[in-house]
Amino acid sequence: MNNDIERVLYSEAEIQTRIGEMAKEIEADYQGKRPMVISVLTGAILFTVDLLEKTDLYTTLDFIDVSSYFGAAESSGRVELVRDLKSDVAGKDILICEDIIDSGRTLQYLVDLLKERGAKSIKVATMLDKPAGRDASVTVEADYAGFIVPNEFLVGYGLDYEGYYRNLPYVGVLKPAVYTK
């Protein structure tokens, strides 16, 4: 897998340091609250676990799975709910954990869905934010972002291509030859 990586953008140490900083920001903002953390499957699992381990707050955790890629290298533009939450969000402070915000359509869909279901407040923590990929119709943004990234195909630390590369401990740029076959 490492041979498929053009270059490493963020090392495991850099990622863990930044997550620790984000955890402190989140602790300060949620002082006296007990947020429900919603991890967006599957990419955000590693980020969510590492963030929660570094955050000294009472939290609950649930998972949601939405997709707009359907196995392709680019978003289809259509967001679909694949797996719903098990918990009721009405009246709760919500922290969405996302691996990357690219077009932003998935995040917009989630925020709109949670508002419709009566969430008291909604904040977003993302490991990676790719503003250059943002769809002009998207109005939501991350409250906490680990790194602002270039408009390149990234894998590792939860990010995948065709289900692979998620287990790399770093974030790297995938060689175009891998996904343009």
From TrEMBL:
Predominant subcellular localization, coarse grouping: cytoplasm
Keyword Nuclease found: no
Gene Ontology molecular function terms on file: guanine phosphoribosyltransferase activity; hypoxanthine phosphoribosyltransferase activity; magnesium ion binding; nucleotide binding
Keywords: Cytoplasm, Glycosyltransferase, Magnesium, Metal-binding, Nucleotide-binding, Purine salvage, Transferase
Domain Phosphoribosyltransferase per the UniProt entry, residue ranges: 14-161
Annotated Gene Ontology cellular component terms: cytosol
Domain of life: Bacteria
Cell compartments where the protein resides: Cytoplasm
GO biological process: GMP salvage; guanine salvage; hypoxanthine metabolic process; IMP salvage; purine ribonucleoside salvage
Pathway given in the UniProt record: Purine metabolism; IMP biosynthesis via salvage pathway; IMP from hypoxanthine: step 1/1; Purine metabolism; GMP biosynthesis via salvage pathway; GMP from guanine: step 1/1
SUPFAM superfamilies cross-referenced by the UniProt entry: PRTase-like
Cofactors named for this entry: Mg(2+)
E.C. no: 2.4.2.8
UniProt cross-references to CDD domains, sorted A to Z: PRTases_typeI
Reaction equation(s) it catalyzes: IMP + diphosphate = hypoxanthine + 5-phospho-alpha-D-ribose 1-diphosphate; GMP + diphosphate = guanine + 5-phospho-alpha-D-ribose 1-diphosphate
UniProt-listed PANTHER family: HYPOXANTHINE PHOSPHORIBOSYLTRANSFERASE, HYPOXANTHINE-GUANINE PHOSPHORIBOSYLTRANSFERASE
UniProt similarity note: Belongs to the purine/pyrimidine phosphoribosyltransferase family.
Record's function text: Purine salvage pathway enzyme that catalyzes the transfer of the ribosyl-5-phosphate group from 5-phospho-alpha-D-ribose 1-diphosphate (PRPP) to the N9 position of the 6-oxopurines hypoxanthine and guanine to form the corresponding ribonucleotides IMP (inosine 5'-monophosphate) and GMP (guanosine 5'-monophosphate), with the release of PPi.
Name this protein carries in UniProt: Hypoxanthine phosphoribosyltransferase
Taxonomic lineage from the root: Bacteria, Bacillati, Bacillota, Bacilli, Lactobacillales
